[in-house]
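Now for one protein, fold included:
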Amino acid sequence: MAEDDGPGTSNSTAANVLTGLGEDDIQVNVYEGGLKSWECSVDLVKVLLRDDIYSSRLFGAGAKHIVELGAGTALPTMALFQLAVTRQAQSTRFTVSDYNFDVLRLVSIPNILLSWAIAASEGHWQAESDLEITSELLERFQTDLRRRDITVDAISGAWGSPFIDALTDRPDPATRLVVASETIYSPASLDSFAEVLLGALGGAEDYTALVAAKRVYFGVGGGVAEFVRALESRGGAARQVAEEAAQGVSRVVLEIAAGRQLTRRRQEGL
């Protein structure tokens, strides 16, 4: 995956993609589909809200780090962010990442702001209404997050070692939950994605990753079997925790394990 050059460049998403929005789901080395909400992101939200074993990581003791890889519209992050606000979670860092800087700027971060407005309004603002983004609103947003000890940061660019360094640039949190959806469609990026996933987990027992994907991506060559092989070749493992049967190609959610977490899973026979 080549890196988006950021704002103000010839490779900027805003310049090259938004003007033709709707013509292409993906433009190789330019745009990776982040302006569209994909089916698997909805599947992932269902698992996060259904299985308290994952969402409860927001409410335990110690610092928490929620990471979404290939965030795009960031539906899973939006769901977890609303939970963090409504359930008074403390000491929580949210990181959203996407190949394209402009996707983060125009979609991912604004959607987190919307999530906060819904959760913090206590019924005074409805999601169906327009939200006017004013300096006063942004100040309230920032003040409220400081009060709750919630931080939000964003990373754009290609997966690889520098990406892992950016994710792990602070003292290790007590828990880390990494989520991703529709990120394994390209065979060319499977190795780097597996590397980033395992690097984010770091072998810690209380770190978890969930990946939602179609079993097969026709026409592009990626899929679950290819991803699992890339993962296992690096000492990781995956187990299915949910499946959505659909006409044509089914969709699954995988839980990823590495290091001590993988050892414990084997001991428990999972």
In short: Residues 1-5, 7-11 have pLDDT under 50 and may be disordered.
